[in-house]
Structures are given as structure tokens and as C-alpha cells.
Amino acid sequence: MIRAAALLLALPASAEVRFDPVLVPEHVYAGGWEHFVGGGAAVWDCDGDGLPEVFAAGGANPATLLRNRSEPGEVRLEAEAIPALDGVTGITGAYPLDLDADGVRDLFVMRAGRNLLLRGGPGCALSEMAGLPAGDAWTTAFTAWRERGEDRPTLAVGNYVDRGDPEGPFGTCDDNRILRPAAEGWRAEPLAPGFCALSMLAARDARDRPTLRISNDRHYYVSGGAEQMWDIAERRFLGPGDGWDGPSLWGMGIASRDIDGDGLAEVMLTSMGDQLLTLARPGGYEDAPYGTGTHATTPHTGDDGRPSTGWHAEWGDVDLDGLDDLLIVKGNVDQMPGMAMEDPNNLLMNEGGTFREVAAEAGVASTHRGRGGALADLDGDGALDMVVVNRRAPMEVWRNRRAEGGSIAVEPFDPAASDAFALGAVIRLEDGRSREVAVGGGHAGGQAGPHHFGLGAAASARLAVEWPDGALSPTVEVPEGFRGRLVREGDGLRAEPY
């Protein structure tokens, strides 16, 4: 970080992070070609007890909901039936968000087939919600944002190969869709051209404008495609005249975070071979130099020198030193001979501008065919634990033993707004760190809820919220260990513990 340097210089050298495996109910993401991709995890507190649940896609298997019964120091997840999904398969992933503006988070469920909306209710009750336009595309990406004057979110749905095209699969990428609020649910608008999207994220870009980023798989678009950026206000794709010349990747996942304290978010794009970290500069992006340590091109264990395959990526401060570290979930597509078969996950520790691989030492270098994942505090002890959904192998969960250092977890909340969860708000810490409230990114799954910040040796943090309407709240101070909401009260801000 830049502005956080004074804080970090006051810290002792960070302790090595260690994770312990957690026994969880067996769940496998499985299936044929339609489930070579997908396999996401959605993480959110669906019962209001302050601990997040995990919804994991199953592909040809049923999805699973893991209720969180943890206590500090012990992660305990228990499988619970989802009556609304009884008999439903083909699920590729899911994202939690408030779809109907009732102040309770719901779930957008992606499928190879008709997508589903599940309304959140008491005790994690999920019931099907009407309103989606008809369709049976192969959906593999999702994001959402709020537009002024609308009482519900606008949704972006990313589709993969057009399974109905007899010329496929190569060169037959399906169109994506924008779903805008209508009197009855949402109405669909095509977003073309589509280049086989595997991740989407609506967030502020290097121009500091709300932009839809689409990560695309060149394996199926073959040629003529690239990563895409679409200006949300102007409703147009960006090009070289905007400072955007999209790279061509086997795009799998997106992770966005301001890691240098300049107020602009860097973007990690997973792929085959080099994993691409792009550094935000005013108005545009530049690729991180190889010496940054984030390319993770080949396996870091074993002797397989073939290129790696990256899927889910996520930032999080796993050692609580005030610097965001990076998880990249890895795994062969299936039996792709040109790519590494024993392909361990990456856990890249941020050392203040460069990154160091520690997954093996930390105990999380699984060589299963990883897909989706999450970094989340499952047991409420202030440290980020890890979830990985695997293809053709059981899902894995690890508990962070917790490094020395403190943390906070905060969530903007505006009870007077139609979007109480303040999608598009930005949390700003006085040390220079910032975090945008967004839905999307990763690979086929994401999180909603409190935003975790490591504090190192600091006893408290001072922070403010820039609300979606542009208003900046006063600064409040919260103590180390605080977990709760930042509640908007007129022009004021109140820290309310869970």
C-alpha cells in the first residue's frame, strides 16, 4: 500500500499463515462437457446469526447448502436440504444479492438451462421467485448494479457456447444479456457480441466510471474476440479510443481490489498459463511486471512443467497484516493433455508490492480440479478461512489458524434506501485502503456481507462510506475485532455491531 505505509512499517514481520482441513459433508461438482466450467460457491449469512453459509453448485449433482454452526476456533458446516431445488441439477454457480428490495438477500442461480431466482427468507428458507425472462442458455457468468430511479438491480448474465448451434462448439459463443427491471420482473436486452463469458464484474474502472467487465474464453471464440469493457452509463463497449485494448485470454475469473492505495482497483484475470494482474493507472491499465510474482504460470509443487489453469481468484488479507493476499484456485479442465494435471492452488502473500507463494506451506495446495472458491471468516474469529469447490472431487474447506494481528469486518447499510445493502458504495479507510460493494467476479460464485480488513498491530480503524448517490459520510472509528454494519443516518454514520 502507499498511504498505509506508516501503519505497515510499525508492524513486526508477519507470521506464516497456516490452515487446517475441516471435515465437511461430501459435495462434488460433477458432469460432462457442460460442467467442465462452473462450480462456483456463493457465501452469505442467510439466517442472520452473523456467520456466513455456503451454497455450492453441483453440476450434474444437486447443489448443496451448508449451514454454518461454527464457534470461534471451530468451523462446523452442516448440509441442509433446499426444497426449492428438489430434483434440479445443471447448476453452474450462484451469487447472493437483494433482488426484490426487501432488505433480505436472495440468490441468483446460474444453470446450463433455465436460470432461477431464489427469494431469501427466515432461517435460510429459499423459495423460487418469478420474473426472469424465458431462456435455456448455458449461463456461466453474472454481475449486477443499481441504476438511479430503479428500485431493483439491473442484472448482467454471461452465456457460454450456444449449444443449439449446429456449427459448434468452436466459434459459436452465445450472446450475453442485460436484464433491466420491468413491471413484472426483468426484461432482457441482448449484449453482443458475446465471446463465451466465464466471469463478469460491474465496478468502477481505471477511469473511475461504473463499467461492466467481461472475461472471455478464447478456447471457444477461437479468434476475433477479447476481454470486454462496457460503459454502464453510455451503454457501449470501450475501445482503443477509451484507453482499452482488451487482451485475448482463456478468461476464467476476475478479482478486483485496490492494492496500492491510489483509490483505483487493480484487476486479476485468471487464464491458462500466465495469470494476468493488471495495474490501474489513471484512465487505463498496465500489466504487472513478471517480478511481481502473480503470474503463477506453472505448478509450484511437483515436476509437471506444463502450464497451469486458473479459475476462481479472490483477494483477502489472510495474515492480517493490512495487505491483501491472493487466492487462485487451479485445476485441469478435465484431461487436457497440454496443461498440468497436478495443478495446486496458489496462495500468494502480499509483501508490499511483490507476492510470495505459500500454498504448500500453508496446507492448501490441493491438486484436485479446483473451480470456485471463497475466502471468508466462517467461525467469526476475525481470520479468513478458505473454501474450494472441486470438479470430480470433494469440496474442501480449511480453517485459518489466525496469524498475529487484528481485523474488522464492516458492511454499509442504508435502511432508508430501496437498496439497503448499498451496491456501489465504497468503504474508505483513513490509511488509504478502499473497497467497493459489488456483486460478481470470481468464477461462477461470489460473496455478500461484511468486508474484512486486516489491521496488523493497530487497535482501531477510522473509516467512512461513499454512498451510491455520491455523498460521503463522516468518519467513524471502530475497535479491532469490530464486526457489524455502518448504518447511514441522514448525513451521519453509526457503527452497529452484529
Automatic annotation (TrEMBL):
SUPFAM superfamilies: Integrin alpha N-terminal domain. Residues 422-472 form the ASPIC/UnbV domain. Keywords: Signal. InterPro entries: Crtac1 (IPR027039), FG-GAP (IPR013517), Integrin_alpha_N (IPR028994), UnbV_ASPIC (IPR011519). It comes from the Bacteria. Residues 1-15 form the signal peptide. This is VCBS repeat protein. It comes from Hasllibacter halocynthiae.
